[in-house]
C-alpha cells in the first residue's frame, strides 16, 4: 500500500502564538507498507528506528515494513515529519480499507507528533498544508483551520549550507507580541506581508541571516524563513522563482517546484472543520 504527502513552506511560524500558516510544495514523501511480522522502517534505503511510526502502527494494530522515499530533508523547516506522518497514516488507512477523513488524519498527526516529541506545537499548519495543498492558516492549539486559499504558481526552496541553530521556543513565545502584525496579515490572507513580518522576527530571534530573504524582497518576491529554519522558501510565478534561484544559488541548493494545488491523497474534507472565511 502506498501514500504520499507534500513539503510545507512557512508563511507564519506557529511557535510564538499558536497561529500558523503554511503552503504545500510539490516535494514529496512517499510511504509504502509491506505486511511483515516485524516493524521496520527504511528511509531512502537506510534502516532507522522511528518512535512515531511505532506509535502509529501499534495504535492502529498493524505490523509492517515501512518504506519511505522522501525528497524533503529532515530538520530543514519544510515539514518533513508532518509529511511522513501524513503519508504513513494514509497508507495504513488504505491498507485497512478505511476512509481518509482529513480532519481525523490531521488531528492524529498532531497528537502523534506531540507524543513522539518531534514537534513543539503539533504542527497542525504544516500537516494541513502537507496534505491539502494550497495555503492554510490554522489554530494549532485547537487543531482547527481558520482559512484555506488556492494558489496556482511555483515555489523556490533554498536548502542552505549552514545548519539549524538552537530553537529557544520559550523566548519566541515570551516576545510573541512582536509578531501580532504577521498573525493579522495571515488571517486576512495577506500571505506575502505575513511571511515578511514573520521572517524578520524569526531571523532576529534565532540568528538566521535576514539578507537571504532581503535579496528576494528587493525583487518584489514573497519569500522568507521556513519553520524554525534553516531553509528559506518563496512563492510566485515560475519566472520569478527561477530568477530567485539564481540569486539564492550562492547560499546553497535551490529547488523550483510547483505550489501544490490539490490534496496529496483523495481525502474527505469535513466542512465544519475546513472552511474559508469571508474577506
Describe this entry's structure for a reader.
It is a single chain. The chain is of the alpha+beta class and 279 residues long. The protein has two domains: 2-149, Ribosomal Protein S5, domain 2 (2-Layer Sandwich); 154-258, 2-Layer Sandwich (Alpha-Beta Plaits). Helix content is 35%, strand content 27%. It is built from nine helices and eleven strands. Helix 1 (51-59) packs across helix 3, helix 2 crosses helix 3 and helix 6 (180-187) packs antiparallel against helix 7. The termini are far apart.
Entry summary:
Helix 1 runs parallel beside helix 2, helix 1 crosses helix 3 and helix 6 packs antiparallel against helix 7.
Taken as a percent bin, the fraction of beta residues is 25-35%
Q: Which residues form runs of ≥5 with pLDDT under 50?
A: 275-279
Structural class: alpha+beta
How many domains comprise the coordinates?
Answer: 2
Mean pLDDT: 93
Record the SSE blueprint.
Layout: E1 2-12, E2 19-35, E3 40-43, E4 46-48, H1 51-59, E5 64-70, H2 80-96, H3 102-116, H4 124-132, E6 135-139, E7 144-149, E8 154-160, H5 169-174, H6 180-187, H7 191-206, H8 211-217, E9 222-225, E10 232-236, H9 238-248, E11 252-258
Parallel strand pairs: 3-5
Antiparallel strand pairs: 1-2, 2-5, 2-6, 3-4, 6-7, 8-10, 8-11, 9-10
